[in-house]
Amino acid sequence: MRQLALAALILAVSGACARPASHPEIRFVIAQAPLSLDPRYATDAASERVNRLIYRQLVDFDARSRAIASLASWVRRDALHYRFSLTGQGRTFHDGSRLLAADVVATYRSLLARKDAPHAAEFANIVRIEAPDDDTVDFILSHPDEQFPARLIIGILPARLIAAGHDFAHHPVGNGVMKFRQWNRVLKLERIADHQLFALEEVRDPTVRVLKLLRGEADILQGDLPPELVAYLRQQPGVEVLESRGTNFSYLGFNLQDPLLKYPLVRRAIALAIDRQALIRNVLTGGSRSAVSILPPEHWAGNADLPLLPYDPQQSRALLAQAGVGLPLKLVLKTSTDAQRVRLATIMQGQMKPAGIDLEIRSLDWGTFYDDVGHGKFQLYGLTWVGIRTPEIYRLAFHSRSFPPFGANRGRLQDAVLDGLIDRQDWPAVTARVRELMPYVPLWYEGQFAAVRRGIAGYRLAPDGSWDGLALMIKRGVPP
User: Which residues form the Solute-binding protein family domain (predicted)?
Assistant: First the structure.
């Protein structure tokens, strides 16, 4: 019934799919606009996805998330010394200047100079950065780090513009496959290879995004749709729906400084009060699957031995009683105003009732929500880690030195045992200890999907939901 009503609404508003106008641009409707096009300080998913197109970084990753050369290859000269040699590709900035070792040095030195930068904790091990010549960069570390190259995924900026205080956040100058054109209400990019133009427009309402696609006002949308809208799009003759398994990790975060949530028994009780399979089945798209930890089992540092958490409201009640918590346990969950997130929270609210948990939902605009999470102004919150490739995420998310603004330990977890395991890079033990402490509830790895209009070809989905497929897609002329 819900799907039929939705279809009727779309048909009524769309005028049965009006004839598309002719546009040279490829128009991409997105749920959330990027917040910053400066790769040194961007943390939201949209910003990181756009920045991967505008900039190139020293290092990228293969299919198993192992570090491979992008702008530079590297050798480990000794335990504390990595030497990076710039390759011949991607060495031209969009303003025409040549990318040199000095630009790499300036980019990373500017990160180190700001101790409150969101990525600062990842580079705290760097003692100095030097450029022996225009093609060589040396990183000297304070202690050995076998995973160090995998950290170097920040887009490289021109040194002279860094020195001039250029506003990269709104006027980026990169060296990637896309060149920045303008950003008013709509972000305009130009593909370097063939000058194809792209327009990225924020449209928060999922139904409106679908309408724009059907009316020819958009060529592509990706993610952030409820399953009934995806099912509806599959039935449309002028639309192709693409789906694949994903790796982006959704979780429920706890404030461990809260008087009740500081107890592991209470956190585990909440985890057992959530029916992940029902949420995946009723709200998420194909390719989504239950999660056990941040990194999926197929990742080289994943832990396939961790069991899935069951839905067991009776055991949840028993744990709350063991912890001495009176029922109902009243909690507040903060989330964004995104319709999909609110819907997930609402279903979760109903699932928790049999366990004696009374969940209040507070949906906030993205800026307010993200600020509250960063400043610890929450009991529970829901977020997704996007594009995570290395196990260093455990240092960023759980090390006691990674409290915001120096990292993303938003729950304020402090555990000396876990710190030691992270410092030793014993990732199986780290994931086991995180499961024991339960600073979050692992929910699912989100499946990926996109919908494209007839005439769009070559777009490929990535497991992490990146928009890298824009680099290859084409728009053919389609007769009306």
Answer: 73-388
pLDDT at 21: 41
The 10s digit of each residue's pLDDT in 337-365 is 988 899 999 999 999 999 999 999 999 99
Residue 455 contacts by C-beta under 8 Å, 6 or more apart in sequence? 219, 475, 476, 477, 478
User: Which three-class secondary structure string do you get for 440-477?
Assistant: EEEEEEEEEEEEEECCEECCCCCCCCCCHHHHCCEECC
Specify the DSSP class assigned to residue 359. Answer: E
Residue 251 belongs to what H/E stretch? strand 239-254
Per-residue model confidence (pLDDT) at position 119: 78
Residues 6 or more apart whose CB falls under 8 angstroms from that of 319 comprise: 265, 266, 268, 269, 272
Q: Write down the residue that tokens 């006027």 correspond to.
A: 171
Q: How far apart are CA 51 and CA 37, in angstroms?
A: 6
Model-level pTM greater than 0.70?
yes
CA distance 87 to 310: 49
What is the reported pLDDT for 17? 43
Q: Does the pLDDT value for residue 479 go beyond 60?
A: no
Query: Hey, what domains does the chain have and what are their CATH numbers?
Result: 2-36+175-245+450-475 (3.40.190.10), 55-163 (3.90.76.10), 246-446 (3.10.105.10)
Please give the Cα distance from 307 to 292 (Å, whole number). 7
Main-chain phi, psi angles of 110, to 5 degrees? -65, -30
Q: Is the pLDDT of residue 282 over 80?
A: yes
Taking alpha carbons only, the member of 196, 228, 106 closest to residue 156 is 106
Tokens (6 digits) for 368:
């307010």
Measured distance between the N- and C-terminal CA atoms of the chain, rounded to whole angstroms: 33
